[in-house]
Amino acid sequence: MTADRISNPTPKRGNPLLHDLARPFPERVAEAVRAWDAHDHGPAHLVDGKAFFALYCWRLAATRRGEEPDEATAAYVRQSHNALGGQPGWSAMLRQRATCSCHGTTWRLENISLCLGCLRYVCYELDGPCCAGAEIVG
Ligand SMILES: [Zn+2]
Ligand SMILES: [Zn+2]
Fold first, then answer.
1. Distance, CA 65 to ligand 1 centroid (Å)?
2. Domain span at 68
3. Residue 113 Cα, ligand 1 centroid: separation in angstroms?
4. pTM for this structure?
5. Total domain count for the chain?
6. Quick one: which of 4, 84, 89, 126 has the fewest CB in 10 Å?
């Protein structure tokens, strides 16, 4: 999995779907899962990078609220996680740094949050909501 991640720089086709800012985040996920389903659950339609970070944090937040995704969505998150390199890949991602859009300061991903409306990173010092009605996860 790790070798695959390094040797395969092809952008995942799920990424632009999760970056479709005109739609609520859960609808973007549903669209990505449908596309993946329509392409035989192939690796090319998974997500990685920031789109995966958003997806995984969204999923974790839902789990903390006691919500369980449908089986297809759960499988999509799991397969994207595996493609990233599983737990080691996720841990490595959390050590990467990103700049918050609210103050321009840099943080490790494990210490920063993400607005699911605009997919911009925001830090804990953000004063108030980011996009109206959008969930902040991370
Ligand atoms: Zn900030
Ligand atoms: Zn926002």
1. 25
2. 2-137
3. 9
4. 0.91
5. 1
6. 4
